[in-house]
Each structure stands twice: as structure tokens, then as C-alpha cells.
Design goal:
It is built from no helices and 8 strands. It has 203 residues and is mostly beta strands. It has an 8-stranded antiparallel sheet, with no helix packed on it.
Length: 203
């Protein structure tokens, strides 16, 4: 969804979006990906068109929940029930020599969650003090944060192995920026065109 408006010398645009992906499976309510974002942009120019300024920004949030159903496509269709009468994972029916620690449906009790947050923005400034001379400055900023957590619960392991539950947490962030000045001059000399350009980048 977006909304645009304004008129010379100022215009604007506001946008928002949301999406949800739900995986088609027996655990579709626990496996989903949701993303929401909002953006804003503004543009302005002086009445004599010598100065132009534009600003933009966007914020995005993503949330992902995941649980593994487990199993493999080549498993027999007449497997024992995954859960016992008490609602616990039916480890006893899957115990056989060499199967220690390899219960195929342990992922049902090993949930994971990940969140990402991103913020980006920029500004562009242009100025034409005299004919043929262009002065510009572009500024950019970006922030990204990612947080995750995964749980390997005791209930997801066969109790005969005296299991211990574990949890993993992750937290990462990154900030970047850039500054790009620009200067150019052009004019006709006789039948030729002289053009000089200078540009720089700072990150």
C-alpha cells in the first residue's frame, strides 16, 4: 500500500507492506514467516530549480518461527505412533540397535525463532549556483540487527540417554554509512564540450 501526494515544489510518498508465509504442513501454525515494512520519501526543489533535496527511509521487521516435522520421505508408512498415550514422544517404539540419539521426530520439540530489524535511509542534495556547475552530496545509512534463539529441550531426547537440554542465542548487528560528494562543471568551448567531474566516497 502506498500514498503519494504533494505538488511543486514538494512531493511525498508513504508506503507500507505486510506479508505472511505459512508453510503447508501438519505444523503450519508453528512454521511461519512474517514481514512488515514502512517507507517514507520526500522531495523538494527551490522555486528557481537551483536546489533539490530528497530524503528517504525504510524500516523492515521480519519474524520467523520454525519447528521441524522430522522423518524422511523413505520411511515406512506404517511406523509406530509418534506420540505415546501421555502425549510424549514415543521413543520406546523406535529403539533398536544403533539408533541411540537418532529419534527421527525430535525436531517437534526443538523450536527456533529468528527476528531481523533493518533501518535504511538516505539524503540527496543538489545545487546549481551557476550555469554548468553542479554540486551534489549523497548520504546513506543502514542498520541491521538479527536475533535468534533455538531450543533443544529435554523432552526432545530419549530419556534412556539421560539427556540435558540446551539453548542457543544469537545477536548480531551491523551499521554502515556512506558520504558521496560530487562536483561537476561543463561548458561549450567553440565546437567542443569541456566537462570536469570530481567525486569522492567515505564509508
Amino acid at each position: 500500500t502506498s500514498l503519494s501526494g504533494g505538488s511543486n515544489p514538494t512531493t511525498f510518498n508513504i508506503s507500507a507492506a505486510y506479508s505472511a508465509i505459512q508453510f503447508v504442513s501438519a505444523l503450519s501454525d508453528q512454521n511461519k514467516n512474517q514481514t512488515a515494512s514502512v517507507g517514507l520519501s520526500l522531495g523538494h526543489s527551490s522555486l528557481n530549480q537551483k536546489l533539490t533535496v530528497s530524503v528517504n527511509g525504510r524500516y523492515t521487521y521480519t519474524n520467523t518461527n520454525e519447528v521441524s516435522i522430522g522423518g524422511t520421505p523413505n520411511m515406512a508408512p506404517n511406523l509406530p505412533p509418534i506420540f505415546d498415550e501421555k502425549g510424549n514422544l514415543n521413543y520406546g517404539a523406535f529403539r533398536y540397535p544403533g539408533a541411540q540419539g537418532s529419534f527421527p521426530f525430535a525436531g517437534l520439540f526443538q523450536p527456533g525463532n529468528a527476528n531481523t530489524y533493518s533501518l535504511s535511509g538516505g539524503m540527496n542534495i543538489g545545487y546549481k549556483p551557476i550555469k554548468g556547475l553542479d554540486i551534489g552530496l549523497a548520504l546513506g545509512y543502514s542498520y541491521l540487527s538479527a536475533k535468534s534463539k533455538y531450543f533443544f529441550t529435554i523432552a526432545s531426547y530419549d530419556p534412556i540417554d539421560s539427556p540435558v537440554g540446551t539453548a542457543y542465542f544469537g545477536n548480531n548487528g551491523n551499521i554502515s554509512y556512506n558520504v558521496n560528494p560530487m562536483l561537476s562543471y561543463s561548458r561549450y568551448i567553440g565546437k567542443g564540450n569541456l566537462r570536469i567531474s570530481l567525486a569522492g566516497t567515505l564509508n
